[in-house]
Each structure stands twice: as C-alpha cells, then as structure tokens.
Amino acid sequence: MNLHLPHGALQFPVFLPDATLAVVRTVDSRDLHACRIEALMMNAFHLMQKPGSGIIQALGGLHRMSAWDKPIFTDSGGFQAYSLIRQNPRFGKMDERGITFQPEGSQRKFLLTPEKSIQLQLSYGADVVICLDDCTHVDAPRAEQELSVQRTITWAKRARREFDGLLSQKKMTDGQKPLIFAVIQGGGEFDLRRHCAEALLEIGFDGYGFGGWPLDSSGSLLTEVLEFTRQLVPPQFPLHALGIGHPHNILTGWRLGYGIFDCAMPTRDARHGRLYTFVNPPGQDGGLSGDWLEYLYINDERHTRSNRPISQWCDCPTCQQYSLGYLRHLFKINDSLYLRLATMHNLRFMTQLTERIRRMSHE
C-alpha cells in the first residue's frame, strides 16, 4: 500500500523517527536524507509549548523551520497527556472539554481541546494530523477503558468537524490537503475496541491508529490486541502502530497488517551506546529469519582497536567512513560527534529493515 501526501508518497512499511520538538536529536535534515528516512513524527502537545505556535508560524511552518521536505505526521498529545497526568494528577486533568495541564516548572496553564489540537496541527503544515484521544494502559480497569472510549469517540467527532471546517475555509486543492487519522482505544477489552473502531469508522477518517500503551506489564507486545484491532478496520485503510518501533515488533506488526510505525527507541538506544546490526545479508527471506537482530554495545572494550565498521551489511555514512574503534573513542570522551554518527547508523538500520520487509513481501 502507498499513502499519497502533500509532501510525497510513502510505501509501506514505513518507520518514522520521533522528531518530537521538530528535531531528531543530534541529526539534521541532510543526515535524515542520507539515512533514507521517508517521514517524521512530531508532536503538537510539545510544540505548542516549545517553541510555541506563533514562532512556528513565523518560521514558516514545520517543514520550512526544520528544512524537511518530506511528509510530517503530528501526534495530537493524547499519549503525552496520559504520561503526564495519569502518572501525576497534579500536573493537570482531563474532562469532556479536553486536557488542561501545567508542565512542571511552567507558570502557564494550557488547555488542549480536540478543536485546538486540529487547529495547531493544520497551522503547522502537517501532512497527517491525528485526533486528540484519551490514552490508557492495557491493565487499567474496565471503567477507565469505557470512559476512554467514550471520550475518544466524542473528541473524534469534534476533531473531524473542525478539520472539515478549516479545510473548507482554506480552499485547499486535493494535492494540498492533509489526511486525518483517528485513534482506536479500548485497552485489552475486545468489545470496547470493537465499539470504538465501529464508531470511528462511521465518522469516517483517512486512516486509524492503534491507541494505548502497546506493551503489557512485562514489556511484551500486545500481539492479540493488535491483531484484533487490525481485523476491525477494512484493509483499504492504513493502520498506524503508534509508539511501536522495536525492530522485532515492526516485523510482527507488519505481518499483522500495520503499515506505519514510529518510536524514539532506535535513536535513544544509539545515544546510549546500543547499536543495531543484522546477523545476515538480505536474502530471499530478507535476512529476517531466525535470530536476525544483534545488538552491539559500543562501550565494550573489545572494540577499542577494531578497524571494522559497525556492520558489514550497512551502507550508512557512519559505516562507510568510521571504525568501531573510533566510535568507541568518541563515546568514551563524550564527544557529540558520537551521538550523530550512532544515530545515523541506527536510523539507516531501521530503513534497511523496512526495505528488507518490502523485498521479502514481494518475493
């Protein structure tokens, strides 16, 4: 499946690195192009605080500000509100109006409504905007899941109405119009997932996201819930596995029918010294059978004098130019160049993974 957006078409599966505050930490747009990144995931909840909507508009919108000419998805802030408020209620509250919050250290209170979230995302120039939703953990009690689903549906109706009204005002051509996705909540309650999906399909959106924390209490992917949710959505609609980006989970998610993935893990791992490598070259199975993923820890002393690259199968700028020994040296002296080079490698690993999956799927 391809997804046609104002700033280009995406071929599935696609991995979006998290550029939460309009930057993938330590790398610039040229680095992202060199790693063959196809789209970025930014976040309206954080961007409305830093640098602020007025500054983003003054700088020409997200694409111009960050010198990124490919698609940008913007998350609404539902997951961030879950992280902020559900973990510590003193930071804010959620009610039928929306999300009221005051970040730690801030003197200002923010109100994020479904309408405001859409207004912000459209003003930023996003290619895909996502409705505000009420996120939960799979282990939350049923009453909390029921409230989440009810609120998510109500907010989605309001978001769709605001989106349609603003697009009508702006008189955009079909090629200029962004897409709007809604998020399916319900935790691990299959009947609530079904109710949420059916209500959102009735409202009508361009695509849908898997909502809620995607891992169980032991850190395992919620495979059964993901599979059930995909079955609820007709195959012509793309499904975004929000927050899912571990390499193994991308392959699993693709096999379950998901096409879009985003996560901060690969770049965060790179900065902390955990680098991703393929065990095998890409063959008929994409080199993705058996134990195909291996971690390389740059702090390991055995790399001190190594002249080899991180991976013999990698064509990223880092592997083409620099040795493990040099990277370990940069890491040990805490030089920022290590952060950039390691991030580029892990990002290219992720795009190589999606390329391998595509080839394997076309065999």
Key traits:
about 375 residues; alpha/beta; 8-stranded parallel sheet; 3-stranded antiparallel sheet; 14 helices; globular
Lay out the secondary structure:
Layout: E1 2-5, E2 8-11, E3 14-17, H1 29-34, E4 40-43, H2 44-47, H3 53-58, H4 61-66, E5 72-75, H5 78-86, E6 92-94, E7 99-101, E8 110-112, H6 114-124, E9 128-130, H7 142-170, E10 179-184, H8 190-203, E11 207-210, H9 223-232, E12 239-241, H10 247-256, E13 260-263, H11 265-271, E14 274-278, E15 293-297, H12 317-321, H13 324-332, H14 336-362
Parallel strand pairs: 3-13, 4-5, 5-9, 9-10, 10-11, 11-12, 12-13
Antiparallel strand pairs: 1-2, 6-7, 7-8, 14-15
Going across the major beta sheet, what is the strand order?
3-13-12-11-10-9-5-4
Low-confidence stretches: none
Helix/strand order, N-terminal first:
EEEHEHHHEHEEEHEHEHEHEHEHEEHHH
Q: How many beta-strand segments?
A: 15
Annotated CATH topology of the largest domain: TIM Barrel
CATH architecture of the largest domain: Alpha-Beta Barrel
Q: Report the top-level CATH class of the largest domain.
A: Alpha Beta
Largest sheet: 8 strands, parallel
Computed structural class: alpha/beta
Distance between the termini: 16 Å
